[in-house]
Structure formats: C-alpha cells, structure tokens
Design goal:
Length: 505
C-alpha cells in the first residue's frame, strides 16, 4: 500500500509529465500551424506568379501574332506599295476579278494599231535596176512595168538651230531715232530657247531623269551642254509662271462633284513632310506641308470650301470637313484579304458582297441607269448588316484591362475594321447609292505614284520652296496629261509667257 505522501508524489510526477507532453504537443501544433500559414503564403505567391506568367504568355502570343501578321503583309493584303515587297518570291496573290473565260491578249474584233503609209512622204529614194539579169543589157531607157513602195519612219538629223534676233534703230525725218525691242523671252546675248528648256524640264520633272543624266542626254542628242544650274533656273521659271494656273486648278477642284484625296510622305530639308493631292479625272493639285493632318489639308485650300463628295482612305483628318464622304473599298478589300489569310471567318463573305455590289452597279451603269433599285439596295444592306453582326460575334471585344493600367484595351485588326465598316457603312457603300462615286480611290493613288518615284530617285528636296515648285509643275503637267494635251508644247508655251490653259473638265 502506498502512503498518502507517496501517492501525492506519484500524482505530481504524472501531472508534470502530462503537462510537459501537452506543452510539447502544443508547440508541435503551433509549429504545424506556422508551417501551414507559410505554405498558404507560398501557394498564394506561386498563384500570383503563375497569373503573371500566364498574362505575359498571353501578351507574347498576341505580340507574336501581330508580328507574324505584319511579316505576312505586302502590297496585295495591305496599304504597303509593291516596291516594299522585296525580291523574295511569294505565291501569286488571289485575284479578285471574276473569271471571263477569254484567252489573254487582244480579243477578236480588236482594231489593233500599226504604222500606216504616209500620203506625203518627206523624202523619196528611187531604187532603179541598171542591168538586165538575163542578158546583162542596159536598162536606162527600159519601160517601167511595176512599182512597189516601202516607207521608213525615222527621226530627222538632230541638231540645234541658232536664231539671231537683230534689233534695228531708225532715224525719222523729224530726227528722232527709234529702236525696236527684243522679244520678251530673248533676255540674254546668248541663251537657250523655249523648246530646249521645255525638253529639259520635261525630262527632269515629268520623266524623273536625274540632273546628271538629263544633261548628258541633251548633250548626246543635240550637243547642248545644259548645266545643272541652267535646268534649276528653268524649273524655277516654270514654277513662278504657273502660279496663276495652279490657282485656277485649285478653284476648279472646289466645285467638283467628287474629289479624290490622298497623301504621302516626302523628305524635305532632312525632315518628314507630306505631299497632299486632290484630284478628279481631269485635274490634279499637289501641295507640300510639314503636317499630314488638318493643318496640311487646310493649307491646300480645297477641302475647307468643298461641298461635294470626298473620296479617301478614312484618314481621320478628312472626316473633320463638312462635305459628304466616301471610303476607298480597295483598302477594305486588302484588309479583308489579310484577315481571310489569318482565318477570320467574316472576311471572305464580305469580300464577295462588296465585289457583288460593284458588279451589280457596273451592270446597271452599262444599262444606262443612274441608280440601283430600292429592292436591290435593301437586299445588299441586309446582307451587309448580317455580316457585320456575325463579325462581332466571331470577334468579341478584348477583356477590360487591370485597374492599374490606363487607357482602352487594344483591339484586334478584325475588330477595328468591323468598327469602321459598321460606323461608316453609308460611306463604305456610297458607290451603291450614287453612281458618280467610284468604288475605290485608285485615281488618287495613281496620281501620287510619280511622287514616290521622285523620292526614290532623289531622296527628297533640299528646300520647301523646291518641293512647292515641283508640286506646282506636276499639278500642271498631270492635269494636261489627263486632258490629252501635248506636254512638251505646253511647257514651251510656259517659257513663251502664255501657258497652255487648263480646263475645268
């Protein structure tokens, strides 16, 4: 039997042991809790890191898609010029023209073109046989039994003509001596005449021949050693004398029913400037300005007073004017082709629809109609609306950006094009409502093509005044070319002080 003291001692020892065990378990539990909290924090941190990595991966995927789409773009599916395609051989672009079933080349019934006999040749050379091929006798007095003719069309011998102007002084019976005056264009003791200067200007600013090659060509043809300074002076003279003509073209374009507008970059004095063009089928007007936007188009002085329909490529500066607007569908087709190649579903049906409307409009024009029937318009409008709706469904808007990022989320190219086709549908289909409005803005792009050629040849202009003079001269020449005038004769008339008039068309 244990005594009370022994039992008390054992009890206290057991209680201490239990308390120590409890304390140890508590410490282990706390340690486990701390480890759990640490694990949760690590898991949360890992989750956040995974989220960041996923966002970066998504951003990189989108960036890769953008870069791949950019690399895949060339002149057939974007606004890039053919010169930017490079030398790499690419698959033939998909033609948007319908198949006609005709063979290439001239079609049956085509009038053709060939040299014709002149009724009044400048020279005639007789080829007479002198000896008989049979007996060898003389044929000087023989009878002519047949005559055949062939003509050679060639240039006359090229040489410069020197015209001497002699001014006389005469004494009247009253004793007064009167001296005649030289013509206005004869201002120097010895100078080049208007025909040669006109040819130099034509070669330099219309055919885009560089100064050195231009002077060499004139020297080879005529022995005329026109120097670079002489040609520059001739260009400045043209630009000065054509100022009233350019103002007339500017005023005439303000009253046009449809105006084609476009712009392109040009280096002037080492800085980027912009050449703005405004044109019709009969007139062209160029200006050069440091700004691509509204300041540049305001300086051109046409759109601020224009009340007709402006055809352009949806550049935002044009939309700030109160005239009617039409958008270039050639741009839309190229963008839709790029989207079709990327697998965007609504692109191909939209291409088919736009070309189908154009075909129906062309058919109606051929039949002498001035508009599509209301039934056809409603049919095309319904198809257009369905494709826009399907496009929105297939290309949802981007997710809202995190709160710490400002600005709107970047939209895809398909979404951007859909927005333009939706908001500006009346301007996209302007060619369907008004037959005077063309399907595209190719006229303006053709008018700017020679500006880009000039940039390739010379790299730009050293001064803004030189660029302005070039634009004025090209406005004159492009307008006259559209009107079927002889450009060399027109330039000659400028040097004679009476430029060829440019009609409003």
């Amino acid at each position: 039997m244990l005594t009370r003291d022994q039992f008390q001692q054992l009890y206290e020892q057991g209680a201490d042991a239990l308390f120590a065990l409890f304390q140890k378990q508590q410490e282990q539990l706390q340690k486990a809790k701390d480890e759990l909290v640490t694990s949760q924090e690590m898991l949360l941190l890992l989750y956040e890191q995974i989220q960041d990595v996923q966002q970066q991966i998504q951003a990189l995927k989108q960036r890769i898609q953008e870069l791949e789409a950019r690399l895949d773009k060339d002149s057939h599916n974007s606004h890039k010029p053919p010169s930017s395609d490079g030398l790499a051989k690419k698959p033939a672009p998909k033609s948007l023209r319908p198949q006609t079933g005709r063979k290439p080349g001239g079609q049956k019934g085509h009038p053709g073109s060939t040299l014709t006999f002149s009724e009044a040749p400048d020279h005639q050379v007789a080829h007479v046989p002198t000896r008989c091929q049979g007996c060898g006798g003389s044929l000087e007095t023989a009878v002519v039994t047949d005559t055949r003719k062939r003509q050679v069309v060639d240039l006359p011998p090229l040489h410069l003509e020197v015209t001497e102007h002699v001014v006389q002084s005469r004494r009247c019976w009253c004793g007064t001596i009167t001296t005649a005056e030289f013509p206005t264009e004869v201002a120097q003791p010895v100078q080049y005449g208007p025909r040669l200067l006109a040819l130099g200007v034509y070669l330099r600013d219309y055919q885009q021949v560089p100064y050195a090659r231009c002077t060499q060509l004139l020297a080879d043809l005529f022995g005329a050693g026109l120097c670079k300074r002489t040609l520059q002076s001739a260009l400045q003279t043209c630009a000065t004398r054509l100022e009233p003509v350019a103002q007339h073209i500017q005023q005439a374009l303000k009253t046009a029913s449809v105006l084609h507008c476009d712009e392109t970059g040009m280096r002037v004095a080492g800085k980027l400037h912009w050449v703005h063009s405004a044109s019709t089928h009969a007139l062209t007007y160029y200006t050069c300005h440091p700004s691509r936007g509204k300041k540049g188009t305001d300086a051109a002085g046409i759109l601020p007073e224009f009340v007709g329909t402006a055809m352009h490529d949806a550049w935002c500066a044009y939309g700030q004017y109160g005239c009617s607007h039409a958008l270039c569908n050639a741009h839309h087709l190229r963008e839709l082709i790029a989207l079709e190649e990327q697998g965007v579903l609504f692109a191909a049906p939209m291409i088919t629809l736009l070309l189908g409307i154009k075909a129906e409009v062309d058919r109606a024009k051929h039949q002498g109609k001035d508009r599509l029937s209301a039934l056809w318009q409603a049919h095309f409008e319904g198809r257009y609306q369905r494709l826009i709706r399907q496009g929105y469904e297939q290309n949802p808007p981007p997710e809202d950006p995190p709160r710490d990022k400002r600005g709107r989320p970047k939209q895809s190219g398909a979404r951007n094009l859909l927005g333009r086709l939706d908001v500006h549908r009346r301007q996209v289909l302007a060619f369907m409502y008004d037959f005077a409005v063309p399907f595209d803005n190719n006229l303006a792009e053709r008018d700017l093509r020679m500006i880009k050629l000039r940039q390739k040849i010379s790299g730009g202009f050293r001064t803004l005044s030189g660029a302005a003079g070039f634009c004025r001269l090209r406005s004159y020449l492009s307008s006259l070319r559209k009107q079927g005038k002889n450009l060399l004769q027109a330039l000659e008339s400028v040097f004679r002080g009476c430029p060829e008039p440019v009609t409003a068309g």
